Each structure stands twice: as C-alpha cells, then as structure tokens.
Amino acid sequence: MKTLKVIKIGGNIIDNEAALSSFIKDFSTIEGPKVLVHGGGKLATKLANQMNVPVKMTEGRRITDAATLDIITMVYAGKINKNIVAQLEARQCNAIGFSGADGNTIISEKRPIKTIDYGFVGDVKKVNTATLEVLLNNNITPVFCAITHDENGQLLNTNADTIASELAIGLTSIFKTELYYCFEKNGVLENVENDDSVIENINTESYKTLKENNIIFEGMLPKLDNCFHAINKNVQKVCIGKSKMLFDANNKHTTITK
Amino acid sequence: MKTLKVIKIGGNIIDNEAALSSFIKDFSTIEGPKVLVHGGGKLATKLANQMNVPVKMTEGRRITDAATLDIITMVYAGKINKNIVAQLEARQCNAIGFSGADGNTIISEKRPIKTIDYGFVGDVKKVNTATLEVLLNNNITPVFCAITHDENGQLLNTNADTIASELAIGLTSIFKTELYYCFEKNGVLENVENDDSVIENINTESYKTLKENNIIFEGMLPKLDNCFHAINKNVQKVCIGKSKMLFDANNKHTTITK
C-alpha cells in the first residue's frame, strides 16, 4: 500500500497571500498521493460583513442560515478553492477542487437540533473513495473545501478539521494514510503563550490528564478529538503543527498516538 | 467512438429555481458521456450590486477587474456550480464541478488590450482532455463554470458559450461530440418577437445572407460564431434552442451545418 498524506491548512495560511504562495510551492513538491483540505472562515466572515449578513458563532461553530450557506459556498468552494487550484497548477501539481458534493465524496446529515439550531451544518456520515481513488491513481490532487452534501441536493457547512480526519479514515481502505493539521502554532502547547512549549506526543492516557489539568482546553479539544478519532480508525500518523513540519522533520510538532 | 453531448445552459435556467430543478431532472436521464457548461452572469451582477462593485459591460462582455473576478469566481465556481453538482448527485448523476483551472483542463490567455481593456478575461488557448477522459470513462459528468486559468496561477473570466464550443472541439479526439446551446428561445428566430419563427437550419452560406439582411444581429452573432467554429472543427452536431430540444426531437430548434 502506498502512503497518502491528508493535509489541512487553516486561516493563518489562507488569509495571507505570501504564506499561501509559499505553502503551495512546498506542498507541490510532496511526492506521492496527497489531499489538501482548507478552511476559510475569516474570509467568509469578511464577506458576510460586506453583505450585511449577521455572523453568529456558537462555541467556535458558525450558525449557518441560507444566506450564510451561500456565502461560505461562494468563499470556500469559489474564491479560495479555485485560487488554490490555479496556484497548484502553476506549480505543476495537477489538482481538482472538491466539495463533498463533487463525486458524491462526502455525505453528511444536517445536524439535528438539540439545544442549538446550527442551521445548514452537516455531520459527516460517509466518505466515498471510488472517485478519489481514480484521481489519486492518475496523479491528481483533490483539494477539499469545508462543504458537504446530504445526497438530496442540500449543501452543508462542515468543519474542515472533521473533513480532513474523515478523508484520512475513509482512504485507509486504499492507502496507508497520514493526517497533518497545519496551523499557526508549533503544535499543542503546554503554555499557549510560549510557542516553544510544544507537547511532542499526546496519547489517549496523557490527553485525559491534560484535559483534567486544563492544559488543553477550548478550541484545541475538537481538533484533538478529530486526531484521536483518526488514529483509532487506522490512520497511521497524526500530527499538529506549523506546515514546516511537513518539510523539515526537525521542526517541533505534536504527534498523536493511541 | 462513443457520442458525447456538451450542453450549455444560460441564465434563463440558472436564475430560476424551478427551471433549474426541472432541467437537472431531465439532464440526469441523458445516457452516455455528457458535459454541462453553465453561465451565471445575472447572479454575478446581483452580487456586485450588493457589494457596491461597479458593473461595466462592453458589447455584452463583462469588464473584469480584480474585485469582479472575485465575484464571478464566488458566484460561478461556488454558488452556482456546487448547487448544480449537489442537485445532480441527488438525481444519481455523478458529477464533479470544474473551472478550467481544475485538472488544468482549459488554458487561456489574458485578452490583449487593443481598444478596450477587458481586465481578467481569458481567450481559450488549449483544452487538455486527459483528466476529462478519465472521468467520462468512469461515468462522471464534468460541470464547467465559465472560468479558466493561464497556467501561472491567474484565474480568468471566460465566455461560457466559448467554453462549451472549445470543450466540444477538444473532446473530438476521444468522442463524437455534439454541442447544444440551451437558451430562452426556440432557436435562432427570423423575427425576434415571434418564438415560432425558428430558422431550422443555418449553414455558412445562409448565415452570411442572414447577417447581411440584419435578420441575425447583436448578441446572436458571438453565439453563432462559436457554433460555426465548432462545426468546422469536427463537432458532429450543433444545435440552439430551448433545453426541451434535448429530450423531444420534435421540439423546434436551430441546427447549424457547414
């Protein structure tokens, strides 16, 4: 089995033209099959403000009414996705932009209303790998934005970290998969103020302790839950850190193990 | 060689939710390989107005500055394209949305400035069919929006009629191709006021006469030039009319012949 890398980039790279261009230059040199997943929340918020569409967030998640769904579809699948694809092509990395609707690759269901109505937000139900397998075997790199569909014609806003972990899990049927979350810090930090305080390894046991001691909290929890979900579902390697970790093994980062 | 249909739909279908839904239902029943190409100019103009970005048109073409390019990328490749793909998937038609950047399928060059600076508008230079061939042979329907790229990372706004004709021409290397332009009228009309006055056949000779007599003018000319370009480059069949012509051979329409 070949090794496939699923790499997720967030706002710190997407929102900065020079950082994105530099990342794409590096990414295009990665050998072997790879999948790129991108967010884009800040640009969506910017467009919503320009269009006077109210932005409502709950616990870091965007409440997605119909107008907001249009905005994120335009920003994620349109502006960000196509610009990344065009830049990859300019670096001779043959890429195709995807939402989960394209090729019916990621099916989700609208999140049921419990205490909060998230609107058009999807929880991933299934990843179909047949189309991705054809592309990856033809040396084409899928570039995923954070949108899925329900198979009934409805697009759904879906967390990009979750999309990355679900793709990494789904593709284990065809590849040995590795999952990399690239963000603005060197990894999970012992002290959020100190970028050198990277916790280099977190396993199920130490994660529990880190949570109990409030060393890991808030925004990191869903990301780490995605990491453990992946590592427990046959993903071979899960790492969190700056994108440098992909190209320089000595660059400190956090590795998640069982 | 199999027959492939390239079908272009315009604003009359895209801007009307019921018409689009009905078209997609019919389209998904078409057997054999097919490619869908869509415009979306009216929705782009609407978003530009909402965002206070001035809309400048010259001879029916959109002057495309950087802000306008962002808008059309968001509307065409995002909102319209992904909603069409999701609806096709709901009808069991496996589809993937494309700009010309995706899979490096359509390469264009920024239109040189002669008397008018069109901005980020592209003239098609080349269609790469390798990726499309893989998809079409795997029963996947490419859905193209009217955006191409220059292979140097720049997206370019490109006329959807032209994209349809260039795809139909490019794919003649693999398929017998047919090109269908669907719009709000029954075909090219002898009298624009009378939808029954369809000119059922136009050839190079009669086109000349129709132009000289001012029966065909203005907006129809670029569409017909695309038709003749296609029919002269090995496209087997070129038709203009309502989308009904695809499903009902008795529905009057215009056929272009050499």
UniProtKB/TrEMBL annotation, chains A, B:
Lineage summary: Bacteria, Pseudomonadati, Bacteroidota, Flavobacteriia, Flavobacteriales
Entry coiled-coil feature ranges: none
GO MF annotation: an example: acetylglutamate kinase activity
Family annotation (NCBIfam families): argB
Localization per Swiss-Prot or TrEMBL: Cytoplasm
InterPro entries: AceGlu_kinase-like_sf, AcgluKinase_fam, ArgB, Asp/Glu/Uridylate_kinase
Main location: cytoplasm
Documented EC number(s): 2.7.2.8
Residue span(s) of domain Aspartate/glutamate/uridylate kinase: 4-241
Function field: Catalyzes the ATP-dependent phosphorylation of N-acetyl-L-glutamate.
Protein name as it appears in the record: Acetylglutamate kinase
Stated family: Belongs to the acetylglutamate kinase family. ArgB subfamily.
Transmembrane stretches, start-end: none
